[in-house]
Write a structure and sequence with these properties.
Chain lengths: ~120, ~140
């Protein structure tokens, strides 16, 4: 059995995903992403449901942007933001891969222990 | 982030437990996929260290850690550092539950990746579900 993706790649994407995980570790930013799932929003629209300064909101927006979760387009004086869910899907795949790694290790543990038992029985005969 | 996997194996808790503390056994069952050259060293005591080097092509993937709890044959806790954890500490707990003639092995890996605090699986899976609904 092989891993769903090459083991090496699975290890290397982690640097980029660390930024994604860190970006979604904050409840405000998760709420912003959930709202953006409905469609494009300006920064003022993003800020509206939150009881915080415009500056604080734009800081969250910048973190999401740096993590590749939010795309910003400047049209006239407005910044229009939209969600890019690809890194979230990547993150989910990464976790699945790690789970799969351990599932395969436990399968291998079973094979190993049962083979060892057979060898022992073979010797004692 | 926490990952939990379980497997019920027709072997005794002792047989399964001991495999985690034996370098030769580790090199065998920690070998990913079809790769042949995984090597391991192991100092099986609390505070003792282990190292498992998985090799894929020309790349080496060292995995290192230290045993924290050794309660034969029910519970084993060790730290786990690798490229995937950016060599920051994550913690693996392996529990062995006797189920008649079989043993249920429950492995829990916490602190993955280390920068994320708490469990965010719910957070982004909700966003993803939400998005799929909107996309429909």
């Amino acid at each position: 059995m092989t891993l769903a993706r090459p083991f090496g790649i699975f290890n290397q994407v982690v640097d980029y995903l660390t930024e994604v995980f860190s970006a979604i570790s904050d409840p405000t930013r998760r709420a912003i992403l959930a709202n953006l799932a409905h469609g494009e929003m300006t920064i003022s629209e993003i800020a509206e449901p939150f009881d915080m300064t415009f500056y604080a909101v734009s800081k969250h927006v910048r973190i999401l942007e740096n993590a590749g979760l939010l795309r910003r387009e400047v049209r006239g004086r407005e910044h229009h933001c939209s969600l890019d869910a690809a890194p979230l899907r990547e993150a989910a795949v990464w976790i699945d891969n790690y789970r799969e790694f351990w599932e395969q290790r436990l399968e291998a543990l079973e094979r190993h222990v049962l083979a060892k038992r057979r060898r022992r029985k073979g010797r004692s005969r | 982030m926490t990952i939990t996997v379980r497997r019920t194996i027709p072997a005794t808790p002792e047989e399964l437990f001991d495999a985690w503390l034996d370098a030769e056994s580790l090199a065998e069952f920690m070998r990913p996929g079809t790769e042949k050259r995984t090597t391991a060293t192991c100092d099986p005591r609390v505070g003792g260290k282990f190292e498992i080097i998985m090799r894929v092509g020309k790349e080496e993937y060292p995995h290192r850690g230290e045993f924290r709890v050794i309660e034969r044959p029910v519970k084993l806790v060790f730290t786990w550092l690798s490229k995937a954890t950016r060599f920051n500490e994550s913690v693996v707990t392996v529990e062995f539950h006797k189920r008649g003639k079989q043993t249920e092995v429950v492995l829990t890996h916490t602190g993955l990746p280390p920068e994320a605090e708490g469990d965010h699986t719910k957070g982004w899976s909700e966003i993803l579900e939400h998005l799929q609904e909107v996309e429909r």
